[in-house]
Write a structure and sequence with these properties.
Length: 312
């Protein structure tokens, strides 16, 4: 049975074919005869070379040399291959010489079909999860990296211990998932989230935005209003200045203003007491947590509560 052989060199690109093997390279074939372009294509009978712009038929000796070149190319030439390392993980397309120097296995025709592929029983299988050297997990990896140490196929990943939460990392020495977050730090974060959540609730309960510069006068207003209602001779500089600046028709009397201040203050305290009580209950629940997992559950509950406060 005759070999299927082709050798071409055109515009700086070489194609070598021997039966099922095909090689593409930009290296010019090293042959004993000169040529600017080469067409050794026995299947079509097109066997010529171009020299100084003119086409010349290949001689019998040149035909034999081209055929020998094709037959020996796979064993002697350096060309790109699809290689895998000692863990059988594809390292991509590299030169055969590099693969041999590093002790890698390689194939010429079988292209790795997945972003991260592993060689097993003469075929490629997909790696769907990777554990890096710090225990972090990469699902559906897009590339292989030097920090990747544990590779899992789809079947292996399905039977692998389930990660309790996205915060867990894999302990490569003890073969278990662990939560690296310090409990005290996580507790502080949850407590902060609780306070932020109920701060939203305070604005909802009061129903309006109160600038800080106005809030700092509240204690003075309450003190002067309480003092005046108990003793009309009590000095009330803030209230007096406030009333002096009012020129509208709805301007209240001094006594009416004082009673309005105290009524608003009582309503505010009542509303804030309800909010503070709810916040306090959640803070106590956080303090009672004994594990990161319990804090995570509470954190999710607070996040949902916050969505409720926002009307979402």
């Amino acid at each position: 049975m005759n070999d299927y052989l082709i050798l071409t060199f055109v515009d700086g690109e070489t194609v070598v074919i021997h039966d099922d093997l095909r090689f593409d390279t930009n290296l010019k074939p090293e042959l004993s005869f000169a040529f600017d372009a080469l067409y050794f294509e026995p299947p079509s009978g097109h066997c010529v070379k171009r020299v100084d712009g003119a086409l010349q038929p290949l001689s019998e000796a040149e035909l034999e040399e081209c055929a020998a070149y094709c037959r020996g190319y796979a064993a002697t030439a350096d060309y790109p291959v699809y290689a895998w390392n000692g863990d059988n993980i594809s390292v991509g397309r590299i030169l055969k010489s590099e693969a041999e120097a590093k002790g890698y296995g390689f194939t010429v025709l079988d292209v790795p079909p997945y972003p991260v592929s592993r060689r097993k029983d003469g075929r490629w299988e997909e790696v769907v999860a990777i554990i890096r050297d710090d225990g972090s997990l990469v699902e559906r990896p897009e590339a292989f990296c030097e920090r990747c140490v544990l590779f899992l196929s789809r079947e292996e990943w399905e039977t692998f211990p389930k990660r309790p939460s996205s915060s867990h990392v894999y302990d490569l020495e003890n073969y278990e998932w662990v939560d690296p977050r310090p409990f005290a730090k996580l507790l502080h974060e949850v407590q902060l989230e609780i306070r932020n959540c109920f701060e939203l609730r305070r604005w909802k309960v009061w129903g309006k935005f109160i600038p800080q510069y106005e809030q700092i006068t509240w204690s003075t207003q309450v003190d002067e209003a309480t003092g005046f209602l108990n003793d009309s001779a009590r000095a009330t500089p803030y209230i007096d200045a406030f009333l002096a600046a009012r020129t509208d028709e709805g301007k209240p009397t001094k006594e009416g203003l004082c009673r309005d201040i105290l009524a608003n203050h009582t309503a505010y305290l009542r509303g804030m007491a309800e909010v503070n009580a709810g916040q306090w209950a959640y803070l106590k629940r956080a303090e009672a947590c004994a594990s990161n997992g319990e804090l995570d559950v509470l954190f999710k509950e607070v996040a949902e509560l916050q969505r409720t406060f926002l009307g979402k």
